[in-house]
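thread from #wetlab-drylab

HS: before we spend reagent money on co-crystallization trials with D-glutamic acid, can we at least see a predicted complex? here's what I'd submit
DV: go for it
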Amino acid sequence: MKELSDLPIGIIDSGVGGLTVMDELLKRMPNEQFLYIGDDARCPYGNRSPQEVAKFTFELISALNDFGVKMVVIACNTATAFALEHVRPLFDFPIIGVIEPGARTAVEKSVTNQIVVLGTSGTVKSQAYDQAILTLAPDASVRGLACPEFVPIVERGVYKLEEADRVVEQTLAQLADETFDAVILGCTHFPLLSHFIRKHLPIGTELITSGSATADTTIRILDELQLNRESLTEPQSIFYTTGNPAHFELIVKDWLHIANPVVEKLVL
Ligand code: DGL
């Protein structure tokens, strides 16, 4: 029987966004294997009801459970906001999300504690970041801005084109009268647009992503449970998408710089 520590770490997202979190995990845990599921066929999650997002999240984690994983990272803010607390008690392995790590990083990096959260409509409406930030810094002010056009741009793979620049500029113009010193990319798809986001924010604004802090939490949990992979064989990660594997593979290659990723179709 396979050692528990040899099992991969599961990662889920509505699509390719979780790759931005996986990027950090891969850099920090080079001996671990990852099993990624992107639910591209049903993306975006950001304008779906909390019940639907919770149901989809349960389905993805159940698929990981069937494959065999030692822990799960919900690398999707919308799913973290609507499903983390529901799914945690239903599985035997640890499950973490990306909102608390992102909020923690923002509070550490912001000097004025005036923080903007860019997210999907669902994440902004849920106020999950507001709650997480105010728990850590009760005097903070949090302004959420829904950016519903960002995820489709990333999923279509046009995140480097002028069209993306224009949409980011128009969306962020809504912050023109606001005062803040830190902006959380509260959707894991948004780091793929960070070059344009940075361009249209005041110089000196801290741009916060949750990947690095999520990696800290993952490492701590594996250490505590003594589940670090010790095998000396080359680690092999696998990507599953409910959408188009050829399109998904292009984004994996571009973002993670993996020459020949294993990308397969998943039918739920
Ligand atoms: N990447 C996801 C997030 O972090 C969800 C995007 C979506 O499907 O709307 O919220």
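DV: The mean pLDDT is 96.
HS: ok that's useful, forwarding to the group
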